[in-house]
Amino acid sequence: GAGVSQSPSNKVTEKGKDVELRCDPISGHTALYWYRQSLGQGLEFLIYFQGNSAPDKSGLPSDRFSAERTGGSVSTLTIQRTQQEDSAVYLCASSLAGTSGRREQYFGPGTRLTVT
Amino acid sequence: AQSVTQLGSHVSVSEGALVLLRCNYSSSVPPYLFWYVQYPNQGLQLLLKYTTGATLVKGINGFEAEFKKSETSFHLTKPSAHMSDAAEYFCAVTLPSGAGSYQLTFGKGTKLSVIP
Fold first, then answer.
1. Are the beta carbons of A107 and B101 separated by less than 8 Å?
2. Does any CB of chain A come closer than 8 Å to the CB of residue B87?
3. Fewest C-beta in 10 Å: which of A5, A78, B28, B74?
4. B65-83 pLDDT tens trace
């Protein structure tokens, strides 16, 4: 595909359920990022993957959040035991090797998560 | 740590009028600066970026921004607003290199309305 794709586009879940959000980065992009966009907090960095290096998980808000990246491509963000405060738009981005701030991050359309 | 402040969560301009969206940053080292635009239900699209060199940066859709180190500002301007410019605009900062250089720190965003 031409851009970053995310699925599902919308997800409604009940409090306490687990959810998985998927991101397909641009082909050839070795760096992948997850951000969260919420009304109260704005846009927040969550996690960063670069090639085979250990991910930077410093932005994950709690241990209920985890992410993996299989084969250096597709990534899944998992939220366990969802809470209402997890309701937000989850954005994925990818770039060429991300060790320089110069690298442009290309964003997907996001997954809107609503926890009822 | 770096931070971004965007003055004005909502800005309204008349079609054809000057657009000015304000962004001030805080960083311990000279940062890289970005403006992104977000249309409803879409991801973020890069408008322009400043890394090094010329402090006046031109971007897509007729937008430009000037990096002013003495004022720690990176305001976004467009001489003549068009209806299609109505969107939310985010200023972001990152470090040029080293730890955290891949992580964008965003402002809260400014929603631009264009009045016909």
1. no
2. no
3. B28
4. 999 999 999 999 999 999 9
